[in-house]
Description:
Elements: H1 8-11, E1 20-23, H2 33-42, E2 47-50, H3 62-66, E3 70-75, H4 82-89, E4 94-97, H5 100-112, E5 116-119, E6 133-137, E7 143-150, E8 154-165, E9 170-171, H6 180-185, E10 187-198, E11 217-220
Parallel strand pairs: 1-2, 1-8, 2-3, 3-4, 8-10, 10-11
Antiparallel strand pairs: 5-7, 6-7, 8-9
Amino acid sequence: MDKTFKDADSALFDVSDGATILSGGFGLCGNPENLIEALFRRGTRELTLVSNNCGTDGKGLGKLLQHGQVRKMIASYVGENKTFERMFLEGKLEVELCPQGTLAERMRAAGAGIPAFFTPTGYGTLRAEGKEVRVFPDRLGRERHYVLETALSGDYAFVKAWKGDRFGNLLFRKTARNFNPVMATAARITIAEVEQLVEPGEIPPDQVHTPGIFVKRIFQGANYQKPIEQRTVRPRPTSAV
């Protein structure tokens, strides 16, 4: 039952070229920083990454992108990464843009064993091209068009939690929770890094966000930078003279 590893490098022992990796985080919030750095050091290439976005230039997943380790990106937002934009326009990166809620639901569906689902999001746009479209009544009885979306799984899920125990039970903190819980359920192997590694039972059962059954490997992360994409502060008020 003890799923602990020494560090990120040891937890990635079998990650090979061409892997599909679900990586938690929203912008740079809740990123599995240690796992991303270890994957960079490992030099693994031809990766398919699934994440809300690809970090920023040189930070988060953006570091993997900048060093040519990524073949395909499935994401819902790309606006903070000039490298991403340039590589896409130059045809050096395969990109699948997916609406944010649909992206989350595709992974939740994979974790729940649901192969596909219908959603109204994306109907009438490029997202719906080539997909099955059906008409269903909405909750008010009005007919609406729905697009068939398939579940989205991965070889590995990289997730970052605030606390975790040796059995893999995870507790996320505030907005760092974001995509991490759904990704943890949707991969063949989920690897979790945590800020605090505690003993089983120290996390109250009703505070466990991700049960340990979904987590295969866990380790305590170190040297978190937690960068902020755009730091915005109020100007100091001028004192009255």
